[in-house]
Amino acid sequence: MISNAMLQQAGAILGQVANGVNIVVVPQSMSVGTAENPAICLKSAIQVNWVKKQMAAPEVRKYVEDDVDWDGIIGTVALDTLVIQEGVFDGTVAYRSAVIWHEHGHVLHGKTENGNVYLYEVTSLANAVGVLDDEEIRNVLEARSGAYRAAVDPGVAALRQFLQQNWQITL
Question: What beta strand segments (E) does the chain contain?
Fold first, then answer.
């Protein structure tokens, strides 16, 4: 169930790296694109309308707690909104942070899964050492290394270098 506490937690994670960026959490049953992707940064008007339409549907609303102003949240959805499936919050804090910061990387570096987007994600995680558990961060980086390997330019060389130098992870 989508709760105000979950929405606040998502905002707090995003707030560690950015202000003024909109983030919404949606039920796990709601599509955000491909089956393996638990989040999306909305980069087109078509995506914005698609997400708003899904969020307004009764089959999605039934997974939202009564005290959540869901219509108000739907009204905030716009370009560069981060849409995160609630299942992300079943993971560790490091995983939640990686997903949210990855999507914020799309706000900064465009819609493609490029090295700069992933580099933003991993440097944000590295900057959180001391706040997040080092072992949790390493586990997330290793689990997501397949996605990092699939990154396209720009930024792939810098991503590889950062992971190797800071975490001894070779792509």
Answer: 23-26, 39-41, 82-85
pTM above 0.85, yes or no: yes
Beta bridge partners of 129: 132
| CA angle 114–82–58, rounded 5-degree value | 135
What integer pLDDT is reported at residue 130 of this predicted model? 85
pLDDT score for 39: 97
If you search the block for the tokens 């706040």, which residue do you land on? Answer: 131
Closest CA relative to residue 38, chosen from 125, 103, 117, 120: 103
Identify whether the C-beta of residue 84 lies closer than 8 Å to the C-beta of residue 23: yes
pLDDT confidence of residue 35: 77
Low-confidence ranges of the chain (pLDDT < 70): none
What are the backbone dihedrals phi and psi of residue 132, each rounded to the nearest 5 degrees, phi first? -100, 155
Locate the domains of the chain by residue range: 4-89, 91-167
Torsional class of 24: left (φ above 0), alpha (ψ -120 to 50), beta (otherwise): beta
Helix (H, G, I), strand (E, B), or coil: what is residue 84? strand
